[in-house]
Amino acid sequence: MEAHGIPDGSATAELPPGNDALAIRMRSALPALVGVPAIALLAWLLPGTNDSYLVYVAGLAGINVVLAVSLNIVNGFTGQFSLGHAGFMAVGGYVAASITLAVGSRWQLAFLPAALSDGLLFFVATLAGGAAAGLAGLLVGLPSLRLRGDYLAIVTLGFGEIIRVLIENMQVVGGSTGLLGIPPSATLFWILLWIFVVVLWSKRLRASTHGRALLAVREDEVAAEAMGVDTTGYKVRAFVVSSFFAGVAGSLLGHYLQLLSPRDFTFLKSIEVVAMVVLGGLGSISGAVIAAVLLTILPEALRPLQDYTGLDFRMVIYSAMLVLLMLLRPRGLLGSRELWERRARRRAPPEAT
Amino acid sequence: MSELLQHLVNGLSLGSVYALIALGYTMVYGVLQLINFAHAEVFMLGAFGGFYSARWLPAFREEPRFLAILVLSMAFCAGVGLAIERLAYRPLRDKPRLNALITAIGVSMLIQAVGQLPWFMGPSPQFFPTLLPNGPLVELGGVSITRLQAVSFVSALALMAALHRLIFHSRLGTAMRAVSFDSRVASLMGINPDRVIAFTFVLGSALAAAAGILVGMSYPRIEPMMGVMLGLKAFVAAVLGGIGNLKGAMAGGILIGLIEALVVGYGTSSYRDAVAFGILIFVLLVKPSGLFGRVATEKV
Hints:
The complex is a heterodimer.
Chain A: H1 19-45, H2 53-78, H3 85-103, H4 114-144, H5 151-168, E1 179-180, H6 188-207, H7 209-219, H8 221-226, H9 231-257, E2 259-260, H10 267-280, H11 285-301, H12 303-309, H13 314-328
Antiparallel strand pairs in A: 1-2
Helix pairs in contact in A: 1-6, 2-6, 2-9, 2-10, 2-11, 3-4, 3-5, 3-9, 4-9, 6-7, 6-9, 7-9, 10-11, 10-13
Chain B: H1 2-32, H2 39-56, H3 62-89, H4 97-116, E1 126-127, E2 136-140, E3 143-146, H5 147-168, H6 171-181, H7 183-188, H8 193-218, E4 221-222, H9 227-241, H10 246-266, H11 272-286
Antiparallel strand pairs in B: 1-4, 2-3
Transmembrane segments (chain A): 29-47, 53-74, 86-107, 119-142, 179-202, 236-257, 277-299, 311-328
Subcellular location (chain A): Cell membrane
Membrane topology (chain A): Multi-pass membrane protein
């Protein structure tokens, strides 16, 4: 998981010699050793395809978790306000789906069973989609992260819209009608696996020197810069990681719904993800997870009301919640704390600029 | 040649509307350092204010009726702007700026969503009534200026001139500039920043309402989501001119209108929305302070 150029500096600085060093290295590998088999087992117990409404909603919630946790890296850790997450999601989704659609029928690893070969293709396509989104994040981040404050919000918003307009005008990927017939490769196993990866990654990121630099940028950018933190560099890297996972989520969504449409990646989608991060508490990973699940279930739970009245209250409730939350509980459900931190430390709220 | 001139005429009338909206963004940013996302919705409400007041006002002579509708809608939106400032932004004034920004987005979406409910404006587009008779006013060598374009341009210009006079030649305007320069020092000099900020919202919202009516007259399909794209482009205009700078907002608005008219005229209209954002990104790359902006240094 550290293969993408993000140093995990938590344990490398002062390793004690000998067996202790090995123990510490083992401990950092433990989540992967336990987690991946556990997820595989869980996914084996759960049905593979979205054959029931409940499983369908669970999958959507899972994809939203990946999105919210990834956006939390930029909006929560770094305190930079990005409004273009839907754009990066679209880049990743479209690239990955194009790959599986183009290669899928021709590509079959002879030495593997068909299902495994398809799974491998999906994994590679998702990585490629994530990489493409990460590249887009680099292109957006390099110029715009030099700017301070609200400009980033508006620039990322602009990029998100540009990406959407470009996709709408690209007939290769279906233009405004969308991309249809994507194979349903995103099973619960893959969604759980990517949740695991993104949660573990951002948890470790925050504990690392890199993450501490990001938090310093959030607390006071000018002061961080004065202390010798390369603020632009750190912000750009955080932005690239965040975009990468947004692209992964896009790929998951495309291969889950079996279709991608530019209408799914508007400004409103970005806002939805922002609402999840804000509701959970900026900077809290577990908060983002909980909020993503809550905000996926909420509209589904409201569906009877919608059927009864014939009105779409979803956006009203979303936006009213956002405003009321900012006024009444400006730091979200969990603030910047985590569920796994046992004692709620009382300290001054971090002031994001 | 005449084709180019025609595009420029179209661009000027569109651009003057962008400039009106951009002024609201730039004034609020000047005093609060806040991107007031809800400004686009105030503009939308302005168009609907015109729509409903036209329905309510009896048909008498066209020009005074148009003016009455304009004033009614501007007054209504001034009230809306005041309410938004009082209820959503003022409680957050001493909180981190990110909170205010998220609130601004929330308010903007709330107005859109509520507006789409059937007992307000409803989700489907409405047709803006004809307030003034349209038709070619001047035709010169293949270039025609319609009456609507002339009205649009002249009203926008008149409003901007009035605003300019208000800000640079009145006590409240002086207070606004003082708060924009340094709110704390201004309050030490006996200026009440709360009042000045409220006044800023009133002015910006009234201008946005006027822009809403002008847009409604030229593009008669109005709907609750109409503010989103136009508002964003007006914001781009404000950034292009240097946010916080009044002359910059006017120039930026006109410039964006001209560029958009040229893109639609010579390029493909499907990219017209992307071009504004392309300009935005280019400006931020090359000169983040905008055309007329000053470079501000931040301190710890």
